[in-house]
Amino acid sequence: MVAAFALLLSSPTRANDASAAADDLAEVLAQPVIGGSRLAVASKYEQDAAEAPSIVYVRTGGEIRAQGYRTLAEVLESLPGVHLRQDRSYTYVGVRGIERPGDYSSRLLLLIDGIRANEAIYDSATAGREFPLDVGLIDRVEFIPGPGSALYGSNAVLGVVNIVTRTASQLPGAAATLELASAARRKFTATWGGDLGAARLLIGLASERSRGLGSLYFPAYDNPENNNGVAVGRDAERNDKLFAKARWGELSLTAALSERLKADPTGAYGVLFNTRSDSLDRYALADLAYGHRWGDAQEIFARVGVAGYGYRGFGIYGTTQAPVPAQTQSDSRWLSGELRYVWSGWPGHRILLGTEFQDNWHQRLYSADLAPPLQVYTDITTHSSRHSLFINDEWQITAPLRLNLGLRGDRQLDGQFTATPRVAVLWAAAPQWNFKLQRGSAFREPNISETSYQDSGQATNPALKVESVRSTELTALWRPTNRFEASATWYHLDLSDSINFIDLPDGQQIYANTGNARARGVEFEATLQWSSELRLRGSWSRQSTRDLDSSAVLSDSPRSVSKLMVTLAGPWQGTTLGLNLLRVGERLTLAGQRLDPYLRLNAQFSLAPAGERWSASLGLYNLTGARYADPGGPEHLEDSLAQDGRQFRAQFGWSF
């Protein structure tokens, strides 16, 4: 992959004499705090963030790089009300205190340039290194917490994340970066942006390897038969990513390809501890879009795309005397498309009409014990499809008062019909004050893995029902100057027929609609541009989540989450310092064990001398060596999993 890109590095050099890192600093420290950001994720057409029907949180690419975020998950972790769970295989995203076991973040809808990225087997919203796009190619991340099914359909239960990628104009010429980090991690990235005939083209690749931590201790396996609980050499990882983006006038093409192999040292799903256990994820996407505007009153957008996802899991079961190798495979291919029309010809109204489809023309699940004799538990090949119609009206009743009405109807994968409405009232009470009141609903339909997969440890459940959420939230926005803004949001949501991965009395596990839950809380965020050399951003969230049937607090639901990000110019020209501090409150494991709160500090120092083509940076993670753990899932014998201590990352970049 690296060799294939060498040809691009000999292409025409950059015309600009400032490095990309210096541009990132200028973007962070010079951008206005107040308004002006044009977003498309909230209403499927461009509008100012203040006009969106609900709160929208944004992280720019400049801020991402200045803070040293290594993955999309770390970017999302910087947002109010978001926390992460990591089990050394995957990273799971919790929003407003809800992160249920076994759901692979499927209550979050993930978009890449507006294209649905949740795959068609597990409906997962990947966010760690398994995410198919390198974080260096992100221009900004837009996040709308709360129900979004009125526009986006299934999976938009807890929020919608839109990843806006960088363009050839932002990354002209060729550039490369070499990275060395803890756990023997090595990473190479390269980009090329320029004209190819009439098209503007950006190509980016990333290739990463890590031996992982040499040994990891798991107390639940501390006995002689399991190497006294020490997994040796079972934490390795490799991943490769390729991305391309082209634009010809009103046509645009987006394509992505990724493969990631990760070893699992935790003994998950009952495999023999300290033996080979790994997972391989492949993802591919190609999407063609067209957009056209007629004056100020009409615009049309159409897109069609193909995508695919493949998973292979391997583990060894049985006993050390009679080991049984087993393999799980899943593959999906799908065709999707969308057509939408925006009309503003009726005074005071902006009306959106749209239709969307997804045809999962190939879905396969396979699981088997490979040791002779071969024992196949699941071998299913099927297909499914979903279709929808949606309408949204943005009604300007008076100058300060706006009403947003939305409704979407979905024909689900199982042929059932679901309607999801949304109503929002926006009031510009004063030039510095905006208020938003929203009431909406959302749903998540069970995926094929939850209903149909089985093996020696998991049973099928074809009777699974759709889970749904109803939510009310109130937001206040205050922007007294162009250097300061603050937001406060109160929310109340009820989750019905929640799909969870649970234990059965016979020792197997199953996905089931196990009850109802309620979440209530508040979120605060403030951003201060102190000077042209200092930017502060902080947030605090307080949340309460309970199972309505048992009144028990939900597992992996922190009572509070606090965050502080500082970006400032360093003491020498071309230097930047980024600091981010995170505090996650007390959480419960699945067994009811209390995990202590933790405080974690990361720091990033960047050097990009003006007029030079090179740049360098050093990132220090968990600087104080905080000891903390995340809850384990039902697939783990360990009730909690210890997280990494101090880590470092050094980067050296060159533009050609």
Q: Would you kindly provide a written description of the structure presented here, covering whatever features stand out?
A:
This protein is mainly beta and 656 residues long. The protein has one domain: Maltoporin, Chain A, CATH 2.40.170.20. It is built from 6 helices and 39 strands. It has a 22-stranded antiparallel β-barrel. A 5-stranded mixed β-sheet has the order 3-8-9-6-7. Strands 1-2 form a two-stranded antiparallel sheet. The longest helix is centred in the N-terminal third of the chain and has 11 residues. The chain is globular. The chain starts with a helix and ends with a strand.
| Alpha-carbon distance between the two ends | 19 Å
The chain-level mean pLDDT equals 91
| Fold-level CATH name | Maltoporin, Chain A
Low-confidence stretches: 1-23, 30-36
Shape descriptor reads globular
Query: Counting H and I runs of at least 4 residues, what is the number of helices?
Result: 6
